[in-house]
Amino acid sequence: MSKWIGTLVGSVLVAGVACGSALAAGNPVGFYVGAGVGVGNPSEDYWQPNKFVWNALVGIQPIPFLGAELQYMDFGNPEPAFHSDDHTHALGAFGVVYLPLPGMLAPVDLFGKLGAARLWQPSGGFFAAPLGPFHAQFADSETDLAYGGGAQMSFGAIAVRLEYEAVDASFGNPWLSNVEVTWTP
Questions:
Q1: What whole-number distance in Å separates Cα of residue 87 and Cα of residue 53?
Q2: What is the pLDDT of residues 117-127, one digit of tens each?
Q3: Is 108 exposed, middle or buried (0-12, 13-18, 19+ CB in 10 A)?
Q4: Residue 161 is part of which domain span?
Q5: How far apart are CA 92 and CA 147, in angstroms?
Q6: How do residues 45-95 score in pLDDT, each as one tens digit?
Q7: pTM of the predicted model as reported, rounded to 2 decimal places
Q8: Any idea of the CA torsion for 16, 54, 2, 127, to the nearest 10 degrees?
Q9: Which of helix, strand or coil describes residue 13?
Q10: CB 102 within 8 Å of CB 69
Q11: Residue 14: how many other CB atoms lie within 10 Å
Q12: What is the pLDDT at residue 89?
């Protein structure tokens, strides 16, 4: 578990350092940060979809129709029967394509994203043993295709997004659908 936290913190620091000089020069690369909440499913084998999910992201949009994002996604707990605090989560890198919609009152863009995500999914539970039950915890991880899309409406430095994202994983295909708010300094 601490390994993914180190990966996430390191990735955010690298993104911050890479974009720090751009921010000082008036943000010519279109650096932004954001977070979202919504519903999703940590696994297609999970019996109760529509769990609370959340994500956080950093991105750049150097030209109006192309960008890139680094994103953390928390898909929720895949095994509530075992009362585990572990969540299925992923760290993804995406290329993003934007399609502006003309004639709107506020700037609206449709967008699609494609990339890869490192997915961690906990498993385990309580098991019977001669000396009494015990709890064992395991984790599967893999790097897989990640994709998504949605629409965003901009209000100056703030944008509100409706977004769907999924990871094409061999152990469950988690997805999330959420509302995000991004801020461009």
A1: 10
A2: 998 877 655 55
A3: middle
A4: 2-183
A5: 10
A6: 655 566 788 999 999 999 989 999 999 999 877 555 444 556 788 999 999
A7: 0.76
A8: -170
A9: helix
A10: no
A11: 12
A12: 86
One DSSP character per residue, 76-100 reads E-S-GGGT----EEEEEEEEEEEEE
* Number of domains comprising the chain: 1
Backbone region of residue 129 per phi and psi (left: phi > 0; alpha: psi in -120 to 50; beta: other values): beta
DSSP of 95-153, one letter per residue?
EEEEEEETT-SS-EEEEEEEEEEEEEEEEEEEE--TT--EEEEEEEEEEEEEEEEEEEE
How far apart (Å, rounded) are the C-alpha atoms in residues 67 and 102?
19
User: Tell me, what CATH number does 153's domain have?
Assistant: 2.40.160.20
- In degrees, rounded to 5, the angle at the alpha carbon of residue 20 between the alpha carbons of residues 14 and 22 is 120
